[in-house]
Write a structure and sequence with these properties.
The protein has helices at 15-26, 41-46, 48-66, 81-105, 178-189, 209-221, 312-327, 356-363, 376-379, 410-422, 427-431; strands spanning 6-11, 31-34, 109-111, 115-119, 122-125, 130-138, 142-144, 170-174, 193-197, 225-227, 232-237, 243-247, 253-255, 257-260, 264-266, 299-301, 341-343, 349-353, 366-373, 387-394, 400-406. By secondary structure, the chain is an alpha/beta fold. It folds into three domains: 6-143 and 265-327, FAD/NAD(P)-binding domain, CATH 3.50.50; 152-262, 3-Layer(bba) Sandwich (FAD/NAD(P)-binding domain), CATH 3.50.50.60; 347-445, Enolase-like, domain 1 (2-Layer Sandwich). It is globular, with a radius of gyration of 24 Å.
């Protein structure tokens, strides 16, 4: 492998690319990474991490409101968007520095510029330098989709939302996936008037129907307005910089910010993969086999750019597996059959395994156990919001096929519960487990 400048050259310094680089280097490979924006990728720089911090910040509105019911007197409450925004951005800076240190500590070279594929074993940097490598790994991630409609240049995506100069009073969110629902919850909690518009009548497609219905009921009660079957038709910018939004055949209505969250597509534009004989898929993704190898034997791809599963932990596992396969003498692939996921909406929901509908289609005879309860923390707050936990069980084997939850701290609880689904435990195993009382998590072992 000494005939090339590097053993592995990674295009993209996100979670998958950094993990693949670190592990490959630990196996003794000579590794380099090129990142045109910032080390850390979407999740760390402008995705799940800063978004979760905004969720935490927005929760204080609810906690401070509830404080009086627990005997606390809180007066003179004010909120400063600039403080929250800047604190979040400073933490992004900290994390980027930490990721960069990780590369340095593992002796991974990194180039702060764009790189494109120039052949099966060659990349070209934006500065014009050609670099050769035995293997090239594509880990460029995804990019927000902006639909075509009149005035879409006045809208923002999840990339820009973290940099808003002030807190808008009126927010329109187009889309009803996890990104849309999370930001709708954040802005609603911070006191904005939020309208969610969607081209269909379904939110959070792919999640269990009972959880979706419960989230819709709760968020409507919290003041979020929905307009289903109403994609944005036009956005007009007025003289005072406010916006007029037209959806479907309805009359225009005002907004200060229009956030478009209608999905993400693989970031492959201009990547030069055709120079290595690689044809992109119908969504612009890089097609790969079970071991993340493309149609070119020397080029691999991991993470959102492959459009398999758009989740950071999956990109990390895929990157790790590629490094072990190529340099660790341990060829392995990544399993996708039991992936826990969460939506940090307000309240949050979390899920692992098959939904009730999927289980009926796949297994036929199933049992469904539910617990519909009022979380203890909501009792003093006079909120009527109820949590809902659901176990989907194979009636023939008693094996847990899926766990679905909505309520406070649902994602934190589900992470441990997901182990049970991965381990193929049974409903009897849950029944035999002593409840931890008083807790919401105990509902998982008390369903009969």
């Amino acid at each position: 492998m000494t005939d090339n400048d590097y053993d592995q050259f990674v295009i993209g310094g996100g979670s998958g690319g950094v993990r693949a680089s670190r592990i490959a280097a630990s196996h003794g490979a000579r590794v380099a990474v090129a990142e045109e924006f910032r080390i850390g990728g979407t999740c760390v720089i402008r995705g799940c991490v800063p978004k979760k911090l905004l969720v935490y910040g927005s929760h204080f509105a609810e906690e401070l409101h509830d404080a009086s019911h627990y005997g606390w007197s809180v007066t003179g409450m004010t909120f400063d968007w600039n403080v929250l925004r800047d604190t979040v951005l400073r933490d992004v800076d900290r994390l980027e520095a930490a990721y960069t240190v990780t590369l340095d500590n593992n002796k991974v070279d990194h180039f702060k510029e764009r790189a494109e594929v120039a052949g099966p074993n060659t990349v070209t940097l934006a500065s014009g330098r050609d670099i050769t490598a035995k293997y090239i790994l594509i880990a460029t991630g995804g990019w927000p989709v902006m639909p075509h409609f009149e005035g879409n240049e006045h809208c923002i995506t999840s990339n820009e939302v973290f940099h808003l100069p002030s807190l808008p009073k009126r927010v329109v969110v187009q889309g009803a996936g996890y990104i849309a629902m999370e930001f709708a919850g954040i802005f609603n909690a911070l006191g904005c008037h939020v309208i969610v518009v969607n081209r269909s009548e379904t939110l959070l497609r792919g999640y269990d129907e009972a959880l979706r219905d419960r989230l819709l009921q709760i968020t409507m009660a919290r003041g979020i307005e929905y307009k289903f079957n109403c994609p944005i038709k036009r956005v007009e910018k007025l003289a005072d910089d406010s916006l007029m939004v037209t959806v479907g055949d309805q009359d225009p209505f005002p907004a200060d910010v229009v956030l478009v969250a209608t999905g993400r597509r693989p970031k492959t534009d201009g990547l030069g993969l055709e120079s290595a004989g690689i044809a992109l898929g119908k969504n612009g993704e890089v097609p790969v086999d079970d071991f993340s190898k493309t149609s070119c034997d020397s080029i691999y791809a991991v993470g959102d750019v492959t459009d398999r599963v758009q989740l950071t932990p999956i990109a990390i596992r895929e990157g790790h597996a590629v490094a072990d396969t190529l340099f660790g003498g341990n060829p392995r692939s990544t399993a996708y059959d039991c992936i826990p996921s969460a939506v940090f909406s307000q309240p949050p929901l979390a899920s692992v395994g098959l939904t009730e509908g999927q289980a009926r289609n796949a297994h036929g005879n199933i049992k469904v156990f539910t617990s519909d309860f009022r979380p203890m923390k909501n009792v003093f707050a006079s909120r009527q919001e109820r949590g809902l936990y659901k176990l989907v069980v194979d009636a023939g084997t008693d094996r847990i096929l899926g766990i679905h939850m909505i309520g406070p701290d649902a994602p934190e609880i589900l992470q441990a519960a997901a182990i049970a689904v991965q381990a193929k435990l049974t409903k009897a195993d849950f029944d035999a487990t002593v409840a931890l009382h008083p807790s919401m998590a105990e509902e998982l072992v008390l369903m009969r």
